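Person: Show me a sequence?

Helper:
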Amino acid sequence: MRDLSQYPFEIRPLSADEGGGFLISFTDFSECISDGETIAAAIENGRDALQETISALESLNMPVPEPGSGGSFSGKFIQRVPKSIHARLVVRAKQEGVSMNSLVTSILAESLGRREAV
């Protein structure tokens, strides 16, 4: 039996329009999600969904990702931001003489470095 606690996951709050509570997704599985009213409930429900996903893959003789394999990443994502932030990014990139993509990549890398150092 697999140790489901080894599979990484992400949790995000759901807006009131989405029904509230929390959504859990597993980075090693593109379609394995669940939710719950609390973070603990989302994790519990998520582990149930993960077990069902793994069982379904095994019953179809399909490979089951190893924990932390995370699939493949393209290096591309799309993010909508308020117009005011977009305008500030354009101005800042122009001031620094770089593309907006380069500027945002630099800002993200710097922020992630700070968080990992804590």
